[in-house]
Design a protein that fits this description.
One of its GO terms (molecular function) is precorrin-4 C11-methyltransferase activity. The chain is of the alpha/beta class. It contains seven helices and ten strands. Helix 5 (149-153) links the parallel strand 6 and strand 7. The protein binds S-adenosyl-L-homocysteine.
């Protein structure tokens, strides 16, 4: 069995309980060494074989996963954040399926959630934005034409942009071209939840300048949107005048038999 495990955004105690148990039981761990905190591996058995996929091709990774699973070993493929975002897991899953090897996935805390905690932000604020766009700039991996930053920016929803820290002049231009105001609040969150985390608040217009000033070129998320502004309407969920499935209006939250 191969399990694709989300390692979380960085801090070694931000993996799930299940993910850590799988690491403890693993005979083989293949981890994404470019972004996974190696401290996570400390719980492994002495006999566990560890591979760093940063130095391997897909074929080499598959060889380790397939041979391990065929010889009855517990194999963990450890990906940063949650494996479902920019994890290149589907191609591994499909290759395993083709070989008849069973696999599962164990979710993790994505870095976009780590960034929200670093910012003390809620991405969905009443009267401001109720949607989050997770996207990236086209790089060596292309992005479909209909998913341009400019197109998404026109919605003025909250945007969290992955894998784009090296392209901030173009990113800010696209965000502005799409319709964000120049002074729309933005932030660069470098290594969210790691000990050397850095949070730089700025505006859409000053993203590139801010990253340059702070020397940030990678391992960062860009967040843009008025949810970073601090102005919003109170939630209906906890409004005394609003009934929910758990609470009648004006009840004050007291528990009744
Ligand atoms: N599956 C991962 C994303 C992998 S893509 C997840 O769910 O988070 C790699 C990109 O994620 C990086 O280029 C960076 O944009 C972002 N990233 C990963 N970890 C990060 C962290 N701790 N802080 C900020 N950005 C991070």
């Amino acid at each position: 069995m191969v399990v694709f495990v989300g390692a979380g955004p960085g801090a070694e105690d931000l993996i799930t309980v299940r993910g850590q148990r799988l690491l403890k039981e693993a005979d083989i761990i293949v981890y994404a060494g470019s972004l996974v905190n190696p401290a996570l591996l400390e719980v492994r058995k002495d006999s566990c074989d560890v591979y760093n996929s940063a130095c391997m091709t897909l074929e080499e990774v598959l060889e380790v996963l397939i041979q391990g699973a065929r010889t009855g070993k517990n194999v963990v493929r450890l990906h940063t954040g949650d494996p479902c975002l920019y994890g290149a897991v589907k191609e591994q899953m499909d290759a395993l399926a083709k070989e008849g090897i069973p696999y599962e996935a164990c979710p993790g805390v994505s870095s976009f959630c780590g960034a929200a905690s670093a910012l003390g932000a809620e991405y969905t604020l009443p009267g401001v934005s109720q949607s989050v766009v997770i996207t990236r700039m086209a790089g060596r991996t292309p992005v479909p034409e209909q998913e341009s930053i400019r197109g998404f920016a026109a919605h003025k929803a909250t945007m969290v942009i992955f894998l784009s820290t090296g392209m901030l002049p173009q990113l800010q231009e696209e965000l502005l071209a799409g319709g964000y105001e120049k002074d729309t609040p933005a932030a660069i969150v470098y290594k969210a939840t790691w000990p050397d985390e850095k949070v730089c608040r700025c505006t859409v217009e000053t993203l590139a300048r801010t990253a340059e000033r702070e020397g940030i070129t990678r391992t960062a998320l860009i967040v843009a949107g008025n949810v970073l502004d601090g102005r919003y309407e109170r939630s209906e969920l906890y409004n005394p005048a609003f009934s929910t499935g758990f609470r009648k209006a004006t009840d004050g939250g007291r528990d009744h038999e």
